[in-house]
Write a sequence for this structure.
């Protein structure tokens, strides 16, 4: 019979909290991380638990400790995925971190690729609303090409999706929620690796010749299990997509 899932140990839950803050960009390279004493006091745990949490982050290469300068975030190349941006908006009120900038590449109604029409449940051939963005970081340059898709019928309720201006930092999902009354409930990510197109290679500054990229397909569902947004993100190579720990059960 089904059983209740095993809960991760406290030190891994604490490590996951700080990992998320690093990946979301709330803690930047060089920023100081809370001390063992502060973690123990904040989380109400014993010092050895706080020590193990920080050691977990050290093993993952996310932080480094030096005598006299405390524990600080390392400059590690990682991808920031949709889940990181949702969490950052929830905690900070903005999707993009201080070291990120966003450039709108395409806004409008275009012919929908076959996989987009299928994901949105549109009869082919079909058109779809789209917003395509290039996200860059101060330290590393172009970091992500993000493309969001919606059925064209949504334009009546969410007209700003077709305007070539930013949405004020709230993100397209939150904007659609605010204009339609629908609520995002959960999301599904699919990942694959492939070669970059010539345009993607140019935007991500990958140089001449074949270059590998990481591609995410991200589908957001509302509380009625209807698709709220279908999105695709393309990331350059040589950066990690780090997941949280999970228990291994017998």
């Amino acid at each position: 019979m089904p059983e209740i899932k095993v809960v991760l140990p406290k030190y891994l839950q604490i490590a996951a909290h700080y990992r998320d803050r690093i990946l979301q960009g709330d803690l930047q390279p060089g920023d100081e991380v809370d001390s063992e004493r502060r973690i123990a006091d904040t989380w109400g745990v014993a010092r050895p638990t706080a020590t193990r949490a920080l050691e977990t982050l050290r093993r993952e290469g996310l932080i480094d400790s030096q005598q006299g300068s405390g524990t600080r975030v390392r400059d590690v190349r990682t991808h920031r995925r949709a889940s990181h941006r949702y969490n950052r908006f929830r905690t900070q009120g903005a999707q993009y971190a201080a070291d990120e900038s966003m450039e709108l590449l395409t806004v409008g109604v275009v012919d929908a690729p076959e996989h987009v029409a299928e994901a949105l449940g549109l009869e082919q051939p079909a058109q779809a609303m789209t917003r395509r963005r290039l996200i860059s970081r101060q330290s590393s340059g172009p970091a992500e090409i993000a493309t969001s898709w919606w059925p064209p019928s949504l334009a009546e309720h969410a007209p700003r999706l077709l305007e070539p201006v930013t949405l004020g930092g709230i993100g397209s999902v939150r904007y659609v929620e605010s204009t339609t009354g629908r609520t995002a409930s959960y999301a599904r990510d699919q990942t694959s690796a492939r070669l970059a197109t010539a345009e993607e290679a140019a935007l991500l500054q990958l140089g001449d010749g074949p270059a590998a990229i990481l591609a995410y397909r991200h589908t957001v569902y509302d509380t009625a299990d209807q698709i709220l947004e279908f999105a695709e993100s393309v990331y350059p190579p040589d950066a990690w997509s780090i997941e949280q720990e999970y228990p291994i059960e017998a």
Observations:
- The radius of gyration is 20 Å.
